[in-house]
Here is the input.
Amino acid sequence: VSAHTGLRETTPDNGAVVKVAPTEINLSFSGDVKLIKLELMGVGHEMPTSFEPNVTAQASFTFATPGMHPGKFMVNWAAIGADGHTLTDSVEFEVDPKSTASVSP
Here is the structure.
């Protein structure tokens, strides 16, 4: 029986409130996947990233996020696991310079 690969960790964390806009986003999976989609969505608009669909399966991906600013963001992603199944999910975080949260990007 083969277990499905899943998202293990993200930076920023899902649900995080960070004081400083991240310069990059990291997605780490429990196994190798081919990341085929990554969108960084602000409220009503897509933000630029350095994402390009990959042809080589790997477990961790890091993307530059130029132009980040305060606000709420959602990272929508899709990947193909080693078992051939497509995985899709999203991660949400907020950039709030006035936050008292101790989480950093």
The chain has a mean pLDDT of 90. The beta strands are 7-11, 16-18, 24-42, 45-47, 58-64, 71-81, 86-95. The chain is about 0% helix and 55% strand.
